[in-house]
Amino acid sequence: RKEVEQDPGPFNVPExxxxxxxxxxxxSASQSxxxxxxxxxxEPKLLMSVYSSGNEDGRFTAQxxxxxxxxxxxxxxxxxxxxxxxxxxxxxxGGYNKLIFGAGTRLAVHP
Amino acid sequence: xxxxSQKPSRDICQRGTSLTIQCQVDSQVxxxxxxxxxxxxxxxxxxxxxxxxxxxxxxxxxxxxxxISRPNLTFSTLTVSNMSPEDSSIYxxxxxxxxxxxxxxxxxxxxxxx
Lengths: 111, 114
Fold this sequence. Notes:
Chain A is mainly beta. Chain A has strands at residues 4-6, 11-14, 19-25, 32-38, 45-49, 55-57, 60-65, 70-75, 84-91, 99-101, 105-110. Helices cover 0% and strands 52% of the residues of chain A.
């Protein structure tokens, strides 16, 4: 079983749609959680950290369910510029080092 | 944020040869890492580059195949030794620490082994 599992997609949605990505992790001792975004042929960049109470950043909302070992990312009012691969990332050591990446979920937003 | 550069940005190499990838950061950082991203897959951590001591390798990666140097707090190299086509991948360095609140990635080195 992979440590971090994601639906690979692709998710093809029209502009303005709401889309949700899910992720599960296998290590119950995982301490930190993140969503990274990776554009085609570019390096990953941090989109947002995920906190136990859930957190929102503009059109993006992240949720964490430690009991189910489940992380989600909700994107509202999708833009063309949201098209990318979204990587679910966990850290078993705490902090920002030794990140474990999911395989990513591809999102394509069309006009 | 941190500005990270990698050299070369891409290379095409013959099997059996070795390639050294350089990673330069514009500020002193505590931790530097090397990742591999194989075609169509996500990132896998190769090792943590330790300043002044041997790198710490993850399961499945060994020093003879991926020797790493880190002479100071802003620079590291990764060598891919005795290359085979299976080593074709993107290699990325990343940094954290020195006041940074997230892990930043370099632009990557795209390696093709024929």
